[in-house]
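The following record pairs a protein chain with its ligand, alpha-D-glucopyranuronic acid.
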Amino acid sequence: YNAWLSYPKLQQGPLYKQYAKWCGAVSVTEGGETLQAALQEWTRGIASLLDLEAVSKPQPEEFGVAFGTFTGGHPLIQGLFEDKTVQSVGAEGFAIRTSQSRKCIAVGASSQAGVLYGVFHLLRLIASGKDIENLDEVVNPVNSLRMINHWDNFDGSVERGYSGRSFLYENNQFTKDMDRITDYARLMSTAGINAIAINNVNVHALETLFISTYLPDVARIADIFRIYGIRLFLCVNFAGPMHEGEVGTADPLDAGVQEWWKSRAADIYAAIPDFGGFVVKADSENRPGPFTYGRNHADGANMLAEALEPYGGIVIWRCFVYNCKQDWRDRKTDRARAAYDHFRPLDGQFHDNVILQIKNGPMDFQVREPVSPLFGALERTNQVIEFQIAQEYTGQQRHVCYLVPQWKEIMEFDTQAKGGTAPVKRIVDGSLWGNRLSGIAAVSNVGNDRNWTGHLLSQANLYGFGRLAWNPELSAEEIAAEWIALTFGTDTAVAGVISRILLDSWEIYESYTSPLGVGWMINPEHHYGPNVDGYEYSMWGTYHYADHQGIGVDRTVATGTGYSAQYMGSNAVRYDSLEDCPDELLLFFHHVPYTHVLHSGKTVIQHIYDTHFEGAERAEGLLDAWGGLKGSIADGLYTQVEERLKGQAAHAKEWRDQINTYFYRKSGIADALGRTIY
Ligand code: GCU
């Protein structure tokens, strides 16, 4: 339950002595609920890590720690940081310094939230066994918006939720368990999150009233989030004005509609002065939007932006817009093209408090997709990238799939925008185009399960997302190591095993499920488990076109949908070329015969067989590796993961056999190694 706030007890030894020396006394002189929360976190952490009661002192005479803002009047904070340091700390950053002469480790920041981040940073250093004798650094978050999107519904269900039900709502009522909300806010802020949208992007009837009838309930949650430096956002229904029967239309250019949103905004800010803003899914998967009135997405987003603008609120407008009623016989329409085709022409037309939220890939959070070509194509528009921490297509938190390596790969992708090196991370942090607003959002994977995420190892994705949003330069290994130390302690043998499991898991999952970038070979609707033709004759635009000769989607310019041309520079050329297209995305861009030879030297069909046999074996290997930890970690933690890994190993075999059998029957080509295919 405490996840990365478990603070596992440290072993006695030289480091323990060092920590005990510094951590016995703590000095905080400012009031303020955020600073008090930081102090509480510290006291709790030290008590658990070191078995030490941190004594609060106005000014420790002996060794101690001091926390405060630069303007808070604490003499040690004022004395220990030079002006130059103070100036380099941004709104949410912090400075941390060990002074041997003053016998003090000081955490100073511009804001109380910054102090909270700094205090947790110090706790993390201690929990991971780092030396704290000579600290001297300034740490600022790279991304200004670090956001979690809940897909929780008011009835208590969670869309694509794999960790039980919602802990925010049940039975069309807000939770009364404010302790859980507080613990959630603690978890999120210590991972670096500063914005949370608390309801599903698909806004149903009652959730439409969150901005009116239910505002007092929403405000109670915002009051807790505020303590932890988190701004609350709401998903809104674009047709809200009609829903409440007050206005007969939702046309964004209608004066009555504009007034309605303005008056809602006034009410919201009266209740929640630091309200973040709206998240909007419009004209997408049957949600209402401006298209109904012959208006475009800029008209829709700007109208909402005007309502929020006087209060500093923002509109986060999602780009997940495509035709979800496609005829599978129609070979011209390509869903992958949709976001770019809709939004690129609108570049420059959005108000500066609008942010476009773009899914990482052109389809929908598949195990493997190329990066959305919209990144780099919008030169004058604020934008955030949207990841999915919830493992909708990556094992639904029954399989382990550590997603940080996937997110890293996406962030490092060079879009070649502006004619030079332009990785996605420089677009979403706002530096490439000088955006005022920018950042990273992700769909949450939490629920009311005791351990928050169903699969214990999925906590690493939640923590990892926050850390990566804070600093995209952290490696997947470093983030895993932090999470492991905070959760399981500093035993290096244990850490080695868990780290290996995490770091291999995406590749393993990909190998027994989805070969060469093909995607969508899953059961319709719930999306769990193998079904090669599950989406083949559907209206969702998600096809692989497998027949007895070959498989893949031709997205080339000459013979296909032309999607490859949405990329810039050598990316467009590489993806378009059958010879140069990277193996892992081959079937996303090209339709090829099963006998096509990959860069690896294998044929496509042999690659499918080999990866599926190997993948299932490696899934079994994860279970074996975990088995080696029995006795070295707490029984409760051990058994819950063991159970899931058993399920994964068994289910990986099901994937292996269904996929291999399907392609063997289609192609008639035998496995070169003669293994059993049914
Ligand atoms: C996916 C997911 C839906 C969700 C949608 C979205 O299609 O399956 O449940 O509503 O994405 O991001 O809006």
